[in-house]
Write a structure and sequence with these properties.
The chain is mainly α and 104 residues long. Helix content is 63%, strand content 6%. The chain has a two-stranded antiparallel sheet with strand order 1-2. Helix 1 crosses helix 4 (63-92).
């Protein structure tokens, strides 16, 4: 049974799908290669399918990894849009808050 992947697993997966190399993807993400590998393993565990095929020389996306790619991109884009809207709303809040204490 699969569980929902976290956005923190989808972002590294997308970077890895672009680089097809753990070392380069980890460098882009400013994390260690073992940390990236762990994120991908956890994503695979949650989804119940392997998303990458690793050999000693190559890294490729599995059929499932390729199928999940557009949905992962859409999910990350949606979270990014949500953050931008929330940030815009925060910037629109203006005014001054005055706090008085009694007896001062």
């Amino acid at each position: 049974m699969s569980k929902e992947p976290s956005i923190h697993q989808l972002r590294p997966y997308l970077t890895l799908s672009e680089e097809l190399h753990f070392g380069r993807a980890a460098a882009r993400l400013f994390i260690t290669q073992p940390a990236l590998s762990q994120q991908i393993r956890e994503l695979e565990k949650r989804q119940g399918v392997p998303v990458v095929e690793r050999t000693s020389r190559t890294l490729t996306l599995t059929e499932a990894g390729q199928a999940l790619l557009p949905e992962a991109r859409a999910a990350v884009a949606a979270v990014d849009r949500l953050r931008r809207v929330a940030d815009a709303q925060l910037r629109q809040i203006s005014g001054r808050l005055v706090v008085e204490t009694k007896g001062a």
